[in-house]
From TrEMBL:
Lineage top rank: taxon: Eukaryota
The Pentraxin (PTX) domain, residue ranges: 1-128
Cofactor: Ca(2+)
Coiled-coil portions: none
Protein name: Pentraxin (PTX) domain-containing protein
Keywords (A to Z) from UniProt: Calcium, Disulfide bond, Glycoprotein, Metal-binding
UniProt-listed SMART domains: PTX (SM00159)
TM regions (residue ranges): none
Lineage: Eukaryota, Metazoa, Chordata, Craniata, Vertebrata
Length: 129
């Protein structure tokens, strides 16, 4: 596990990108296109296997359960993407500054069915327009 060196408490929209390579466990964290931190040896050689469930906005205290409402994300999320490769620093900066829009080849927010639970609402959002 890693605590990301990112702050999102100013009430504004931010672009966040985290890269990770299973080959060596190298990770980098970017906020608004600027690298904020990096590390190595994070779960090296432990690939993410298919068939799982990705839970967004809620910490689980045990695998697949024991959710505590006080640990819920409160805010808005948009345009989650996953790639099968590590994006370059230039690609990340271009995404963050609306110079282009890459669509994740593993998962794309626009293509996946998102299930909403706990009174959530889906709203239209175009960050670069």
């Amino acid at each position: 596990a890693v605590t990301l060196p990112i702050t999102l408490t100013d009430g504004k929209w931010h672009h966040v990108c985290v890269t990770w390579s299973t080959r060596d466990g190298v990770w980098e964290a970017y906020q608004d296109g600027v690298k904020k931190g990096s590390g190595q040896n994070l779960s090296a050689w432990h690939p993410i296997t298919p068939g799982g469930i990705f839970i967004l906005g809620q910490e689980q205290d045990t695998m697949g359960g024991r959710y505590d409402i006080t640990q819920s994300f409160l805010g808005e999320l948009s345009d989650l993407q996953f790639w099968s490769r590590v994006l370059t620093a230039n690609e990340i900066h271009t995404q963050a500054t609306c110079g282009g829009h890459l669509v994740g080849d593993v998962m794309s927010w626009s293509e996946e069915q998102v299930e909403l639970h706990g009174g959530l609402t889906e709203l239209p959002f175009e960050p670069c327009h």
